[in-house]
Automatic annotation (TrEMBL), chain B:
Protein name: Branched-chain amino acid ABC transporter substrate-binding protein
Native organism taxonomy: Bacteria, Bacillati, Vulcanimicrobiota, Vulcanimicrobiia, Vulcanimicrobiales
Alphabetized UniProt keyword annotations: Signal
Family, similarity comment: Belongs to the leucine-binding protein family.
Source taxon at top rank: Bacteria
Length: 302, 404
């Protein structure tokens, strides 16, 4: 295995890790704040991809300029997550909120039901046939990164993901609102006693977590076929990654997301049949030796 | 969430099949005649068979008048979820509750599973969607016909052609299940016959989302040809990745199996590919006439060769039932074996008695680019017609141990 080859594969690992990190981050933030295991995360990821796809259809039908689709793609990096995030907030306010006091199994069942409903509705609306989505021309080529020519789009994905992850970390760890979020995660009753509207904080956090999933969907739209079951496989890996990183830990999700993207890619080179299982093997080992995950605090230490 | 959803489904299937299987329903010969359409309704192959296959079979039944032997014909649609065990349990349930024919079985694992049930139950199965040539080889049986195409035919045409024109070193991208294994075996044989070889092949799970690492590995191996020996969404995603890493600039990309629906999904990506298909909707006036009716019912979509094969197979089977005067599988097999036929789908068709391969013409087609097509979905241009005798595995080389 030549060094160039290995380096290229490392970039591939980072590119797939970028998706895992974004998804795991959202899932983890939601769990930290709401104590809800959001099964519908994959469906939100899929909705993000469809939002950008339908947006592109809408723009193409009205604006003749071929550049419009490209402009829309960059705009949809903000618009699609905002729209899907608002949809998430709607779900939180109307449905999820009612289940906070109950056994976690209820919210789990609710979000699982949402997956089935949302996916089947999308299947009805868009059909099972994948919808094509082209890479924006500016990012379609390859870039010379010294040792190899690498798809520009994948570099773009890595950069965006790193920026968003860094931003999320900064907001939660270094800003006043982040301090409130952390405090509300630790002890919601005490925080409420200090006059902070925890309920609103919860709603916003849920919306942001969903928006992150939708962003991952937008970013992946040009790389795969946009289709209703696109969230199915990736969400299972994401759950494993969140468990490995430590439920509720931001840094843990980001690090584990990228690390497991790398592991999967290298695994695919060394022994392809194991590549998809590798994450679960790591998960089992982590659960045995560090039940709270690599970066998680044990429940008793909270 | 495929696996978690399938657990309750599998339990339900297990319960149903055990409770229904007690009396082997010898429904009175006046009740309806049931066809079980076992297909992928929502997964990676739903676009090339799925709802379109349902429409095609219903059209066939309607065109036949909705009745045969004075009995009403009903079609039961079964979603096999791309899982062999699900298909097996459902097929058993269908046969036990009176189905006389199982049809489609897109996905080789489900096709092989259903063929086994057909053999046990002495009921007929006609595979259109599943591709594995094992269905008329190691897994052949009296009650299963393989109707549309198979991995041997694809390899023999696409694989041999590309090798003969200079692509000697092949690198295979193969899905890790029955279809992929057979595809690789048949392509390896065809490539070797023309003096080429497979330098390496990567097996990956059905529905792999990220093909990047395999593409880099392939690029690094410097083959002449990258063989995408997969199907449906896997083909689309791996082709996209291959183009993203510009493998198409360094080597030939051979697409083992491509459906019209794949090109519909990503026209730009597949333009310029040369592939093999069993039928094309605009191949002649008869095909077109049927495709127009299909399009009317399916919001303008054009049928894939699998969907056309489903219509054709249904009609041929109903003709056989009518002629034989019974739905009894042994009598139908006796009637069909060796019989030659022609319809809008199968040209110079024959129900080969030796191994139950249904042979007919196959076509080598070029995929046109967007600016070259004359009408929507008109992606293919036929460049060569392969006669039945050359398209499929010759009888003399059949590996089917005929035990009936």
């Amino acid at each position: 295995m030549s060094p160039d080859y290995l380096l290229t594969q490392i970039f591939n690992g980072l590119a797939s890790g970028a998706f895992y990190a974004l998804l795991a981050l959202g899932l983890s933030v939601i769990f930290g704040m709401l104590r809800v295991v959001n099964f519908a995360h994959g469906a939100m990821y899929m909705l993000g991809a469809f939002a950008t796809y339908y947006g592109a259809q809408f723009v193409n039908a009205r604006v003749a300029d071929p550049n419009a689709a490209q402009v829309w793609f960059f705009a949809s990096l903000l618009i699609a997550p905002a729209v899907v995030g608002l949809f998430g907030i709607l779900l939180e306010v109307t449905l999820l909120r009612r289940l906070y006091g109950l056994d976690p199994i209820y919210s789990l069942l609710l979000t699982f039901a949402l997956v089935l409903i949302i996916e089947d509705l999308m299947r009805l609306a868009a059909g099972p046939l994948g919808s094509p989505f082209a890479t924006p021309p500016v990012l379609a080529g390859v870039t010379n990164i010294g040792f190899t020519l690498y798809p520009t789009y994948k570099l773009f994905v890595i950069v965006i993901s790193l920026i968003v992850c860094a931003l999320a970390w900064f907001i939660v760890e270094r800003t006043p609102i982040g301090a409130r979020i952390r405090a509300a995660t630790e002890n919601p009753v005490l925080v409420r006693a200090l006059g902070i509207d925890v309920r609103r904080l919860v709603t916003i956090t849920f919306g942001v977590g969903i928006a992150l999933a939708a962003l991952a969907g937008v970013l992946n739209a040009p790389q795969t076929n946009v289709q209703p079951n696109m969230g199915d496989t990736i969400i299972i890996y994401t759950f494993a990654i969140v468990v490995i990183g430590g439920l509720g830990s931001i840094v843990g999700s980001i690090v584990a997301g990228f690390a497991l993207g790398l592991l999967q890619t290298i695994g695919a080179v060394v022994f392809p049949p194991i590549s998809t299982t590798l994450i679960f093997i790591v998960m089992v080992i982590v659960i045995v030796f560090r039940p709270a995950g690599l970066f998680g605090k044990p429940e008793s230490a909270r | 969430m495929r696996f978690s959803r399938s657990v309750p489904a599998a339990l339900a299937v297990a319960l149903l099949s055990s409770s229904f299987s007690v009396p082997p329903a010898r429904a009175a010969d006046s009740g309806p005649i049931k066809i079980a359409l076992i297909t992928d309704m929502s997964g990676v192959y739903a676009a090339l068979a799925g709802p379109g296959a349902v429409e095609a079979v219903k059209m066939a039944v309607d065109d036949f008048g909705g009745k045969v032997l004075g009995r009403q014909i009903i079609v039961d649609v079964v979603d096999h979820r791309n899982q062999g065990p699900v298909a097996q349990a459902k097929a058993r349930e269908e046969y036990d509750s009176g189905a006389e024919l199982a049809l489609d079985m897109t996905n080789s694992a489900t096709a092989i599973a259903v063929a086994g049930v057909a053999k046990d139950k002495h009921k007929l199965a006609i595979v259109t969607g599943g591709a594995s040539s094992a269905l008329t080889g190691a897994n052949c049986n009296k009650y299963t016909y393989h109707y549309a195409y198979d991995t041997y035919a694809l390899a023999n045409s696409t694989g041999a052609n590309i090798t003969a024109s200079g692509g000697k070193k092949w690198y295979g991208i193969v899905p890790d299940y029955a279809f992929g294994a057979q595809m690789l075996t048949d392509f390896t044989d065809a490539v070797q016959r023309k003096g080429g070889e497979f330098v390496h092949s990567d097996k990956m799970p059905l529905g792999t989302t990220d093909f990047s690492s395999y593409m880099i590995a392939a690029k690094n191996a410097h083959p002449d040809v990258l063989g995408l020996l997969n199907a449906g969404a896997d083909t689309v995603n791996s082709m996209k990745a291959a183009k993203q890493f510009q493998l198409d600039k360094q080597m030939k990309i051979a697409v083992g199996l491509l459906f019209l629906s794949d090109v519909d999904a990503l026209p730009d990506v597949f333009a310029g590919s040369r592939i093999t298909t069993s039928w094309y909707w605009n191949e002649d006036a008869a095909a077109r006439k049927w495709a127009d009716r299909y399009a009317k019912a399916m919001h303008g979509l054009r049928p894939t060769d699998i969907q056309a094969a489903d219509y054709s197979a249904t009609t041929q089977w109903l003709n056989a039932v009518k002629a034989a005067g019974t739905t009894d599988a042994d009598a139908i097999v006796k009637y069909l074996d060796g019989r030659q036929f022609n319809d809008f789908y199968a040209h110079a068709g024959e129900w080969r008695a030796r191994d139950h391969r249904v042979t007919h013409e196959m076509y080598v087609v070029d995929v046109l680019s967007k600016d070259k097509i004359k009408e929507p979905h008109g992606w293919f241009k036929i460049v060569q017609t392969i006669p039945p005798s050359r398209a499929f595995r010759p009888e003399s080389q059949s590996t089917c141990k005929k035990d009936w």
